[in-house]
From TrEMBL:
Keyword rRNA-binding assigned: no
Species classification: Bacteria, Bacillati, Actinomycetota, Actinomycetes, Micrococcales
UniProt family annotation: Belongs to the DegT/DnrJ/EryC1 family.
Pfam families for the chain: DegT_DnrJ_EryC1
Co-factor requirement: pyridoxal 5'-phosphate
Record-given protein name: UDP-4-amino-4, 6-dideoxy-N-acetyl-beta-L-altrosami ne transaminase
PANTHER family assigned: DTDP-4-AMINO-4,6-DIDEOXYGALACTOSE TRANSAMINASE (PTHR30244:SF34), TRANSAMINASE (PTHR30244)
Keywords, alphabetical: Pyridoxal phosphate
Length: 376
């Protein structure tokens, strides 16, 4: 079965990991600090990112660092993985879903503006498939009500908008380094921000809420062993073993992004002019870091095409089921029909294989099966 996504691991990656295994620090060591500096640099920021154990952990940490809690509202898209919404729910926030733009599938600023209130704490946009959000439009919506803009960039590390790297577009940005993503640490994620206070709170939260710095202690004279926990936190520390893999992968990030664009271009050329098919949008000024190739079939036969490709050894996927369709949100009173554009997008979308080691012949095999299905 040809997978829809897959990690790209080289002997250099393996060597980077084994060097850590032979060293003194398996966690909380220098490889973590190096990786955090590397991620901050890719995001166009100085200093260090806050590395964590997954993209979900990154969202949880970012919402906590933003002060999200009971009584707050978070506005986000339903066309995303569950964690964009659930990590705010876990902290006690109410989720307000807003519809997506029909071309990119990203959170639509006008739709977000229609649901923000004076209780909105965060507006969370998702770089769906790797295409950057409308950061200017969404930032304006968020800032007008005193909220912050969070960019869930799980799909888009290495991308940019109007020359600004993903990671510097929003008030706070989260990344994911799952194996199918644009670079991997096996499992892992990161939080970046231009706001040092958000970063400090994020670092404390992911470290179980513990602090040791004398200036942050209530009783600084107890001894060198002393630590305190001023607020609750969780252990979301990324170990050095995985951080070393991430730093080594970052050396090839530009080639990963370029190869993903090459494959996207090949798909786009093959599907051009076919009435039943809609290719992913690419807005002016955006340099996507394509994580998915979200093809849309508009004749109502998405399930048939999905089964046809799976039956022929192509491991396609659907991204995503609208979040508020999940039983958890249904039980809270959310109903289908809330975001018609997102639901239409979902009903048509099918993610074709896309990863750097995918060969042109494999891409052409997928193309032939899709074109044959629609009779092109």
């Amino acid at each position: 079965m040809l997978p829809y996504g897959r990690q790209s691991i080289t002997e250099d990656d393996i060597t980077a990991v084994t060097e850590v295994l032979r060293g003194d620090w398996l966690t909380t060591g220098p490889a973590v600090e190096r990786f955090e500096a590397d991620i901050a640099s890719v995001a166009g920021l100085s200093g260090r990112a806050v590395s964590v154990t997954s993209g979900t952990a990154a969202l949880h940490v970012a919402y906590a660092a933003a002060g999200v809690g009971p009584g707050d509202e978070v506005v986000t898209t339903p066309l995303t993985f569950l964690a964009t919404a659930t990590c705010a729910s876990v902290l006690g926030a109410t989720i307000r879903f807003a519809d997506v733009s029909p071309d990119t599938g990203n959170l639509d600023p006008d739709a977000a503006a229609a649901v923000v209130t004076d209780r909105t704490k965060v507006v969370s946009g998702v770089d769906y498939a790797g295409h950057p959000i409308d950061a200017v439009g969404l930032g304006r919506v968020a800032h007008e009500v005193g909220a912050i803009l969070l960019e869930d960039a799980a799909h888009s590390v290495g991308g940019s908008l109007d020359g600004t790297p993903v990671g510097s577009l929003a008030d706070v940005t989260t990344f994911s380094f799952f194996p199918t993503k644009n670079l991997t640490t096996a499992e892992g994620g990161a939080v970046v921000s231009r706001d040092p206070e958000i970063l400090e709170r994020a670092r404390t939260f992911k470290g179980i809420g513990m602090v040791r710095e004398p200036e942050r202690l209530r009783r600084p004279d107890e001894g060198a062993w002393w630590y305190e926990m001023p607020e609750l936190g969780l252990n979301y520390r990324l170990p050095d073993v995985l951080a070393a893999l991430g730093s080594n992968q970052l050396r090839r990030l530009s080639s990963f992004v370029a190869r993903r664009q090459d494959i996207t271009d090949r798909y786009n050329a093959a599907f051009a002019g076919i009435e039943e098919l809609q290719r992913p949008a690419h807005r002016a000024g955006a340099v996507p870091a394509w994580h998915l190739y979200p093809l849309r079939i508009r004749d109502g036969r998405r399930r048939e095409l999905f089964d046809h490709l799976r039956d022929n050894g192509i491991g396609v996927q659907v991204n995503y089921i609208p979040v508020y369709w999940q039983p958890y949100f249904e039980d809270l009173g959310y109903r289908r029909g809330l975001c018609p554009m997102a639901e239409e997008y979902y009903s048509q979308e099918i993610s074709l294989p896309l990863f750097p080691d995918l060969t042109d012949s494999d891409v052409d095999r997928v193309i032939d099966l899709v074109r044959g299905f629609v009779g092109a």
